[in-house]
Amino acid sequence: MRDLLGGKGANLAEMANLGLPVPPGFTITTEVCTYFYKNGKSYPPELEADVNAALEATGAIAGHVFGDPVNPLLVSVRSGARASMPGMMDTVLNLGLNDVTVEALAQSSGNARFAYDSYRRFIQMYSNVVLNIDHHEFETILDSFKDRKDATLDTDLDAADWKEVIADYKAKVAEMLAEPFPQDPKAQLWGAIGAVFGSWMNPRAETYRRLNGIPASWGTAVNVQAMVFGNMGETSATGVAFTRDPSTGENLLYGEFLINAQGEDVVAGIRTPQNITEAARIAARSEKPSMEAALPEAFAEFRRTTALLEKHYRDMQDIEFTVENGKLWMLQTRSGKRTSKASLRIAVEMANEGLITREEAIARIDPAALDQLLHPTIDPKAERKIVATGLPASPGAASGEIVFSSEDAETAKAAGKAVILVRIETSPDDIHGMNVAEGILTTRGGMTSHAAVVARGMGKPCVSGAGTIRIDYKTEKMTAAGVEFSKGDIITIDGAAGQVLQGEIAMQKPELSGEFQALMGWADAIRRMAVRANAETPQDARIARQFGAEGIGLCRTEHMFFEGDRIIAVREMILADDEAGRRKALAKLLPMQRSDFAELFEIMSGLPVTIRLLDPPLHEFLPQSDEEIAEVAASMGVSADALKRRAAELHEFNPMLGFRGCRLAIAFPEIAEMQARAIFEGAIAAGKQTGRVVTPEIMVPLVIAKAEFDLVRATIDQMAQTVAKETGETIPYHVGTMIELPRACLRAAEIAETAEFFSFGTNDLTQTGLGISRDDAASFLGRYTAKGILPADPFVTIDQDGVGELVEIAAERGRKTRPDIKLGICGEHGGDPHSIAFCEKIGLSYVSCSPFRVPIARLAAAQAALAKKGD
Ligand code: ADP
Ligand code: MG
Ligand code: MG
Questions:
Q1: CA of 320 to the centre of ligand 3 (A)
Q2: 349, 404, 489, 846: most buried by Cβ count inside 10 Å?
Q3: Domains of the chain, CATH where assigned
Q4: pLDDT tens profile 477-513
């Protein structure tokens, strides 16, 4: 019932139904939140009576009465939306305490220190969350009190001390609000409920929703729950745990707790938390006792409970708990956030354990998150100048300039810089800075601190709790190991080792784990579409094959034109005055292209390779500097001035829509002739090398009409015959076209009469379909997505309504003429999971993307196939 009760409320109810020890309570549903915002921030009329009845029932189970001066029920008020939003909404603990009930709590617990500690926590939390008074005000009071008393830790203070602090706190509230801290428990409760609903629309919650695509209409629920106390003494504790390691995915109970503590003490990094299990304590070489050693009975029950929860939810759980006088209480469970690496390992191991199916394992991995696994770590051979060590909070490594605020992170990122966000600790206000940083470094906080949790979710490296670093926000400097760093200095963090290193350090490409290979294998067995890569260099082709590409979907021949001396020959060709001059230059290029193609065909060893004829406007290759011009002029035997004049003639106002694509082959068939010859001769050579027949797919770019395609096709067919005659070899090949202009989509039925395949060039199709130049879109496109005019950047995720329909039209018309026509996509969209899902929907044969995205596409294609099956 997550939609109605929110994640937290639904899971609390579920745990209670399972018979687990959950403090009693009730949930005000998300529907009330929706009502609240629809009705000028007011409640449904029946709510008050319902809350009173539920409070009574809760009190009856807990054995207390809300507001009773002798036997008071204390509650927590906790927000909980449908999707988990860590740290977004504020929880109020110990609600119901006032000057009278605190005495009752002291009496009934026989622990006055505990009662007054709880009361001061309540005043501070309530004042912050509900009354909007900054935490800082209370921290200042507490710090100066501790100074006066020569105390360092909260636990050094006794009941009398807390009474004094409370008096100061209350005075502060009265001073700031011009009215006293509310003493009436009912007023406290409604204040807290209103604050939870109110916080749904606060800026940090809105930022989180925006970053995570959560609609504002969902609303949050409010959970009111009887308090249990982890701050009652040495046999009480509070903690958080994961049923498996959220960094590595290892199947081990993993977590942190603090004796004699409450609520978020563990997460806030106030004291260094202790390990839950002995094994973890030993591994961490910690001297502080584990929960297993300190609270053995509660631990045993906890271990049983966590195992049961994981089985029940069939996923790794993130659990919050409290031990009150040796008795375990469960306060929350949810699917745990994890790194990509962990997510992969957990999914594969759970499938192998039989807990989930392989299909579920596939569905659980976010294809985009695989990106993270394909990202660099520090080269083990590189020298490391370690300046500090903290906790390995989120794996991966990153280098960047130091910034000390999220604002500076955004500014630097906008200026094209890589930054590491360095903070004493992070808060939800830092989400926008964390989002643009390459990595995050904090000097306080544990493995479950805000920084650690959010960084893992974002897939960014994070080192937390690097306590030896001193940060001075005012001077924008930090010192570590005696070295002073200023804002803008470069550091590297290693989130797997928890290290902070001076300068930039050599990185290494990741190694693909066994789990990765296993999951990819399962995905391959399920997907229908083939996955190819866009590659032209031998190196890219090799990476593509390593990552499992089943061919090349797009080889951009012009990329082969830039290397070494070739560019001179290319320039000669472009600048030649006549066909004879062009042919002379093309003759120099032929052997180079032939050997390139031969090598590519060899690497791909019989897999399909689609080669696109020369596409970009010629001026892109022109010499720019005087030196370059002189070089080409000498090689051609013409004057530099003449050459400059010729180059100026090639100027175009709008090259994207100018003399490019097959227009080049129409005007200068000899270019297409040379390329076709190089392809056929290269194919024969590679076929001999590998013993596998190469069937090149030759692709004509930027076609708008069948007649145009036919002209280029004739040149290619002619060359095939010529080469066959010369070599005595028959060459199997296909000629098809790139569909990348709206007119081609509309004329697809005719074009398919002679074109054997279509490859959708969705980059140009997006530019021409929307009339938006990708290179000029930056200045306005952001507003289009922000205002919801377009659902996403159409250059990243295919614009289904517009460009998508053009693709569908072309696919349908092409198939009508040629039912077995091969249809693929080779724009950037070929590596985008949403676009891949669309390709599956309309039945394309393959997607082609950059080599590093091949694994993402394999997984996304499998998920798309599963989703289609499920429809
Ligand atoms: P968040 O959504 O930020 O995790 P929670 O509502 O889970 O906030 O509350 C934070 C912490 O407060 C919990 O992890 C738990 O330690 C403590 N807490 C909440 N409710 C209770 C309760 N009824 N009794 C004791 N501790 C509680
Ligand atoms: Mg929390
Ligand atoms: Mg919680």
A1: 6
A2: 846
A3: 2-226 (3.30.1490.20), 237-335 (3.30.470.20), 376-508 (3.50.30.10), 527-557+604-614+695-870 (3.20.20.60)
A4: 999 999 999 999 999 999 988 999 999 998 877 767 8
